[in-house]
Amino acid sequence: MRFFLTLFMVVVPFLSGWGAVAQSVVLEEVLTIGDLDDDSLFQWVGVVADPEGNIYVTDAMDYSLKKFDKTGNFLAKTGRRGQGPGEFTAPRLLDCSRQFLFVTEQYQPVIKVFDKTLQYRFHIPLAGPVGDIKVLDDDMVAVAALSARGGNHVAFYDLSGRFVKTIPLSPGPSRSLMNMVSFDIDSRGNLYVAYNFADRIEKFDCSGQKMWSKKMLGIDQVKKKKISSHIIPLEIVYKDVALDRSGNLYVLGGKFSRNRSRDVYVLNPDGELLWSLTLPDTSHCIYIDGNDFLYARANEGISLKKFKMVSK
Amino acid sequence: MNKTPILKKGLALGTVFILLFLCAGMVDLHSGECEKALQRCIDDPYWQAVTFGFIYCATGYAFCLKYIEG
Half-sphere exposure of A78 toward its Cβ, with a 13 Å CA cutoff? Predict the structure, then answer.
């Protein structure tokens, strides 16, 4: 067991003129899983923690789902390369309900469902690949996916894959990467989205009514390039979002942030910037558990770090 | 007038600019990997045959950029 209590970064609200409140937050590293010297993790992608503090991770490099206890001890692993039940071709995102773990696949239109002992249970069939996922309960999942029909939306499905409802987002061209979003949903059903290739963060209520839209970094548009017949954006603006227990929204910035892939902007439920913080290492995602611990990547995916967020 | 310090400053500045250029190139190289992977995916007969195969390629490209860039 290794506990580090290293002070990493004092937060400075640096977006002047954006109503930032002078407040600082300290990230205290409380746990590291995986290191350059061990083989706990090879290239982790998705992370989630259950109410008991157990940590689950998808590892793309060895096609697996892994379970660690709250002190980082390895408990179990499942999966191997393949397309059979409980096997993975490219495991990606991960979320959990009280009973189950939900794992997305990059190149298969399914969500694979496991119990918390990592036994494969069933899969949820979908119409296409998943861009982001949020499990709402033991009976519903929300999915963001590029739409083949034009525009974009977050769709809700029951565990049999039956479509329940959709919240349409901003209209956009069909099958465009510009529509790709990361999202989270709060306890009231409000939906927060951050566009991966546009400087836009939005909030919708549970009926789909847009509450606000923010442009935080002053980016008009990202560089694009034509590949085959498709116009492809080349620069990520926002990588991921997560909500804490207070309903504050954490947005991980990408290329345009002062510290690319390390700066996290913290907005209150009204969309006002409260403060920002900087991760010690670049990350592709952020995750906040039920006790407001923040998880992020280190060592290019070999390490998972867990931080306590302390207000000063 | 001694020109040597000016030349040294010029050389130092030039070196800095070259290093900055090379660093920028390294970042582009990483991003280029995702572009190349996307191109391969789009050109792959398997994904061309799959309904809305481009969406799979595009989703993979976005993941690649998120994971590598930075």
Answer: 18
